[in-house]
Amino acid sequence: MAARIIDRITPAGWRLEQLLRDLDKKEVRIGFQRGDASDENGVDICDIAMWNELGTSRAPARPFMRQTVDNHEGEVNALLEQARKSLLSGASGEQVLKEIGLKVKDMMQAEILNGGFVPNAASTVRKKGSSKPLIDTGGMRQSVNYVIKAKGESDG
Asked: Using CA atoms, how far apart are residues 93 and 37, in angstroms rounded to an integer?
């Protein structure tokens, strides 16, 4: 007759299981949150970011959000691996999401500054005095942020 093995989950195992259940209910949203900022004319920065990301009938797309993900894939994967290790070492889910939010926010702000985008039109250069796309007052770049929300929670 084979010996019967009884295994028990340790307190640390229960803690990790609960942490993962709690973390599964949350998400970090990185970018722009409607209503958080507007330009000098009262236009929501979220709309300005969307028009720049996707382009308009008068301006080409300058996809800084997509480029952030594409150009930093290795860094994001390393960040997620570090998050996994942090969780296993006892970090809270909230802390791990904050670290992800901060680091990807920094990546997105750097992409706005350094991304290779279609140059500004001559009329835009005359108006703002610069040929650098996505940078006028710096308000959009400074408005990049992150929030931690329950999955599926609306922004309103």
From this structure: 28
**If DSSP codes are grouped into helix, strand and coil, which group holds residue 74?**
helix
Note whether 83 and 102 are within 8 A (CB): no
Residue 151, class by beta-carbon neighbours within 10 Å (0-12 exposed, 13-18 middle, 19+ buried)? exposed
Which three-class secondary structure state does DSSP give residue 118? coil
pLDDT in tens, the chain (156 residues): 677 888 888 888 888 888 888 888 999 999 998 888 888 888 899 999 999 999 999 889 999 999 999 999 999 999 999 998 998 888 888 999 999 999 999 999 999 998 888 888 888 888 887 777 787 778 889 999 999 999 888 876
Rounded Cα gap, residues 53 and 60, in angstroms: 9
Q: From the centroid of its chain, how far is CA 107? A: 8
Least Cα distance to 112 among 32, 43, 36, 8 occurs for 32
- Judged by DSSP in three states, 67 sits in helix
Q: Are strands 26-31 and 145-150 parallel, antiparallel or unpaired?
A: antiparallel
